[in-house]
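Retro notes - structure team

What went well: the batch runner handled both jobs without manual restarts.
What didn't: labels got mixed up in the shared folder, which is why I'm recording both outputs here explicitly, each with its sequence directly above its tokens.

Job 1
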Amino acid sequence: MRYIIALLALTSPAFAWEYTPLPVCTVSHESDQGTLELTYDPANAEPYSIAVTRPGAWSGARIFGLRFDGPNALTITTDRHGIKDKTLTVRDQGFGNVLNGLEFNSTVTAFDGDTTVTFSLDGAAPEIARFRDCLIAPVA
């Protein structure tokens, strides 16, 4: 029985937060709900981007938002987003509130009108801290 449990654990998807420094600083998370990817590329005029991909289409609403729930709850909204296929992307010159929300809360919900996708932030804090270190001393 122990072998079956071990085998099942190895074959189930690992939904962990992952940091990658190359070719640009990236932190991402994939779940059954979708994928969230945050990047920092100093070669771009707007070096920060967040891309949220979900299985279904986004509604295309004028306002996109991130709602962070937890000890430092906050909601951030923007009308500066674009949608390509099933991925919604926002680019900007700074993401301090986004980084704080990801690092210091328990969940993040991306919303576009009535369309939402929620991600657990369990395990995100150490990866966001590594991402912040990359911003100080980029590896690329």
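Job 2
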Amino acid sequence: MSNNTINKKAFGKRLKEAREKCGLTQAELAEEIGVSQNFLGDIERGIKLPSLNKLISLSNTLKSSLDTMFAESLDNQILEPEEIYYTSKQLSVMRNVIKAINDNFK
């Protein structure tokens, strides 16, 4: 079960790291991809996300794949322990099964 939302702050951080690795200022990168420096700053601060066309431009300009740029931005993991999704009866049955398995291997 995932919410498939994009963590804008994580994406912005990755983008800033990629830009700095290429030795570009915000102004230079903004001009290169055709956006304002303010808009690029908003992306890097995690306030906004670029359009698909701008993502492709960013990827090409920074020579960084989109999967690298989105690493850590997509949170598809359940943060809560799985046990909260089971009823107490289900948990009891699972504990008994685990105990029976463990008892057979002693």
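One thing worth noting from job 2: Helices lie at 8-21, 26-33, 37-44, 52-62, 66-69, 88-104.
We'll revisit the folder naming next retro.
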